[in-house]
Amino acid sequence: MNTSTAAASGASAGSDEGGPRIAPNSLQAWLMASRPPSLFVAVSPVLLSVALVYERTGQVQLGLALLALACSVLIQIISNLQNDVGYTLRGAERRGRKGMPRATSLGLLSVGQVRRAILLLIGFTVLLGLPVVETRGWPALAMGVASIVAALAYMGGPRPIAYTPLGETFVFLFFGLVAVVGTDFVLTGEPVPASTWLAAIALGSLSAAALNVNNYRDVQHDAEVGRRTFAVAYGSALARLFYGAGLALPFVLLLPIAWLESAPLLLTPMLLLPAVLRLWRAFVDCPGGTAYTSILVRTFVLELQFAALLAAGAVATRWLA
Questions:
Q1: Region of residue 22 (phi > 0: left; psi between -120 and 50: alpha; otherwise: beta)
Q2: pLDDT, tens only, 244-303
Q3: What separation, in Å, do the N-terminal and C-terminal C-alpha atoms of the chain show?
Q4: Which of 53, 72, 154, 263 has the highest CB neighbour count under 10 A?
Q5: How many CB atoms lie within 10 A of CB 24?
Q6: Are 20 and 113 in contact (CB under 8 A)?
Q7: How many whole angstroms separate alpha carbon 242 and alpha carbon 96?
């Protein structure tokens, strides 16, 4: 798409569906590129980790917790902006894709603008991460650098992660294991207990499930543009199974988490099981196309609810001890 065509498309963004028009360079355009609903996957693991540390130690270093949260959110925004630009530069934003529109492809933001924003956010993330590195040393530095590189590599470089079946794996690692376990280490500087590792696996599973439904929605389009996502590489049937397993595994893990901590209140997220069953039925019965977008958002919300209820159970356990 050339600049003039993109600008023309951007000027009428939203008009095809009768929705509000989005002006180029507007706040709405930046929100389109930054994907606010996806930020739940950045908030949830930090929230949960802070609560688990409090349950175990009775205290939390609030300054470090806020820095970890800010860095997690910024890295997710960086990933989303890179995703927007990467699709446009690789010509992967074609008619027929069912996902949410991309600001650079519509001409609402220029590639240069978004790239400058990415550099600015990386600089801000590094600045916020300096006190964490000073406190916890090279492990914190390694986690931060790896997270930023992964955010850029998801849709950047000669072989983007998004063009392989490994997207869900990277989401699981960075928004599950690294985010939860890493935050615990940042707050305590001590070895992370098994219960927290299991909680990290649970959050990573839900994050991977969200990406899976996103790729499942666009499996035909992705195959046409050369993206070999998990759904493209292994087929829709296995992708459906992946999504179901991603929803179920966190609730299975609640049992050993509660047992290891001798804390029945850590089973509180079980209250979400009816909502999980409704979400699974909605996924199975989905007519296709853009209808999967609402399931994607509901998966993001489920992850936040799971983290919040598990965190509440951890805090209550401490208070009642």
A1: beta
A2: 999 999 999 999 999 999 999 999 999 999 999 999 999 999 988 788 989 999 999 999
A3: 61
A4: 72
A5: 17
A6: no
A7: 24
